[in-house]
Write a structure and sequence with these properties.
This protein has about 450 residues and is of the alpha+beta class. It folds into 2 domains: about 120 residues, no CATH class; about 260 residues, Elongation Factor Tu (Ef-tu), domain 3, CATH 2.40.30.70. It has a 6-stranded antiparallel barrel. Strands 9-12-11-10 form a 4-stranded mixed β-sheet. A two-stranded antiparallel ribbon has the order 4-5. Helix 1 crosses helix 2. The longest helix is centred in the N-terminal third of the chain and has 95 residues.
Length: about 450
């Protein structure tokens, strides 16, 4: 008998079950990858947020550090300046006393031998007293024009300027660019009112001053060649010129000179306009501007400037005011606020103040490093006010957004608004001409 074929049947797989299994596996893999990618994205976003916070914290820290360093440097410059002045005054006083004593001793030595010692001592004492009386009557010590052993000279300012320009930003490069800018000098030397007699007979005067707030006052050196702001870079590739061929404030002897209009003189106070110096500038001298001599108008001479000097002044076509800003300026000179405003302002009404502000803003006083900024508001202290404005360069229009009475300090504006092209002067904590003069 033949044996039956009892081999087991072959397993059967349907195509549908295979496809279903593969689909489930693919879906699981996709889900896994999706969850993993979402997790990575969330982790990356968290890391970026932390980095952004850390970056902002670092920027704020560096800003605070810079502001603190600038404030410390300014305070150090002021202290060093005051110390140098005290030391110079002390040396001059000692030299003057020594000269007086030496002169008295020579007088005594040349006297008759029969003179008694008491008579000699009396003559010496009288000589010293006479010298002291001469100093009191004459006001300033003659030591100012007597060179020291090193050949240097020491001068005392005749007064400190009070100006409508409180910071370097906003101060014009030349005084006559903003004719409405005002200032006053309180001459503090002895017999000041008598010394000023006759100056009011002239329309203008020369003002000699000290660049007391130069940005490099803490340095002992200076650059022999500089790049003035108005140098035409296209002129034969020239980019620098010797400092004596410019009006840079960074000079071996940081002394400047400006022409100003004399508005009036009352007692020992000289009121000026067309000024380009900021509040606190030490004034060394006032000299009359003699028309026909100083302007060379009566002389047949060839007058020209250096070929590299650009004569293009940036000047906006129009300065417009927002209604709120205009109302705030008018209110400042009316009612109860008028007394507070007039105590700080050099202008007696809002019309004069607005004319001054319009002239300043029309000259484009923005710092060079912020000229390309758009849709931003700039702030500048002018006279008794803090003025906030915006610039539409394409339309050549400046808009005054708001105006408020200054609280007596401009430190909140920061030094980023200052132009470091030039410098200024001060024996106090205030500032002077800063923008580098045009040539």
């Amino acid at each position: 008998m033949e044996e039956a074929d009892v081999s087991s049947p072959a397993p059967s797989f349907s195509l549908g079950s295979v496809v279903t299994g593969v689909s489930v596996a693919v879906a699981a893999a996709c889900l896994y990858l999706y969850v993993k990618e979402r997790s990575r994205a969330a982790q990356l976003a968290s890391t970026q947020a932390d980095e952004r916070v850390e970056y902002e914290r670092m920027v704020e820290f560096r800003k605070s550090e810079r502001q603190g360093r600038v404030a410390a440097e300014k305070a150090l410059r002021n202290v060093r300046h005051e110390l140098q002045q005290c030391q110079a005054r002390e040396r001059a006083r000692e030299q003057h006393v020594d000269a007086s004593v030496d002169g008295s001793a020579r007088d005594v030595a040349s006297a008759s031998p029969s003179s008694s010692s008491s008579s000699s001592e009396s003559d010496t004492a009288q000589a010293v007293r006479r010298d002291g009386n001469r100093k009191k009557r004459g006001g300033q010590s003659t030591a100012a024009t007597t060179p020291s052993s090193s050949g240097s000279y020491m001068f005392e300012p005749i007064g400190i300027l009070e100006s409508v320009y409180k910071k370097r930003i906003g101060t014009p490069r030349q005084g006559l660019v903003v004719e409405a800018g005002r200032a006053r000098v309180r001459v503090r030397c002895k017999q000041a009112s008598q010394a000023l007699e006759g100056l009011a007979d002239f329309t203008h005067c020369w003002v000699l001053f000290v660049f007391h707030n130069n940005t490099n006052t803490h340095k002992t050196s200076y650059r022999a060649k500089v790049h003035p702001p108005r140098m035409n870079n296209a002129h034969e590739g020239q980019r620098t010129v010797g400092l004596f061929g410019t009006r840079t404030p960074h000079r071996p002897c940081p002394i400047g000179i400006s022409v100003c209009r004399i508005e009036s003189i009352t007692g020992a106070v000289v009121n000026l306009s067309g000024i380009d110096l900021i509040d606190g500038t030490p004034i060394l001298d006032l000299k009359p501007y003699v028309h026909g001599y100083d302007d060379l108008g009566e002389f047949d001479v060839i007058k020209h400037n250096a070929s590299w000097l650009s004569h293009d002044f940036v000047h906006f076509d129009r300065v417009q005011w927002e209604p709120e800003a205009e109302a705030a300026l008018n209110d400042a000179y009316q009612g109860a606020a008028a007394r507070r405003t007039l105590a700080k302002s050099m202008y007696t009404d809002s019309t004069q103040a607005r004319h001054f502000i319009d002239q300043v803003l029309a000259t484009d006083i923005r710092p060079a490093h912020r000229l390309k900024e758009t849709d931003v508001a700039f702030r500048v202290p002018l006279d008794a006010f803090i003025v906030e404005y915006s610039v539409a360069t394409a339309e050549s229009v400046v808009t005054v957004l708001s105006i408020s009475i200054a609280d007596g300090t401009t430190s909140s504006l920061g030094d980023d608004d200052d132009n470091d092209d030039a410098s200024a002067a001060t024996t106090t904590t205030t500032t002077t001409t800063v923008q580098e003069e045009d040539s």
